């Protein structure tokens, strides 16, 4: 089959593409590379000109504030139009979400409608913010979530524009347009499946695909200094609960001194980000989630001990009895306790890491996951 995967972030579609191509299918990804992260895509409509310097970034924002004109959207739409002849007659089209090109809703709608008009069979992934997910978090969800900082008054809704924009009518309409044409909506983990319990097109979770052959067991056997890594993306700092990790690490540094080393990386392209955490023993991924995202899974594949979603909600949804990851909860004392256990018993770090790799191989291997997608594609 010819398969078009629309949008890319966190290596979600690249990993699925690997599995689908291994099984003999022709796969094309169109997207913008997820901004500064620069994930590979086959048809790139992104343009990094406006991100090259402080001046060009300020120019972009200033023009938008004064005129309401999104220069970046115009550039993306222009590149999309150039690529339109390459976007027709696919057997399957899968959208990564309802805003796959990260443009304003009106510009996005033009591109979505072009793809819909030129193809026939569509699927919608649920693996990031969208209308149904944000609506669920603001109206029904119990417990902690990516909007925790707003709920507790630490941040304003205006600081979470990326998420709350999906409640606006134009973004809502784009979402339901894709739901309407989609054969199925496919949740990639527990967090997104929670929001889809009333959606008749939603299917059971298909876990995120990981290209397991691309990343090998890479543990740091030197346990004399425990290296703890935390990646920081300022745009989702509060959504991931990185503030809990930073408070925890301040306590850990005072408690253990030279026995620990904290490693950080901020707003880096994907390839550079991965290089930095290679020497880490422990990776602090995110707090305000109930499942593991891509950074967590890829780190687990390399034998790191990962703090992410790994509690009872996760185990129940995936029908598992255990998972070799540390359930990260929004409680600094709890996080300090969990890190202290690892630092006080360093040999357990290597044991958990090896088990973590086996877990990803067993539950997320890309060819196996691609086969599960194909069951629905080929209905």
UniProtKB/TrEMBL annotation:
Keyword annotations of the record: Transferase
GO molecular function, one term: transferase activity
Superkingdom of source: Bacteria
Protein name: Glycosyl transferase
Organism: Nonlabens agnitus
The organism's taxonomic lineage, starting at the top: Bacteria, Pseudomonadati, Bacteroidota, Flavobacteriia, Flavobacteriales
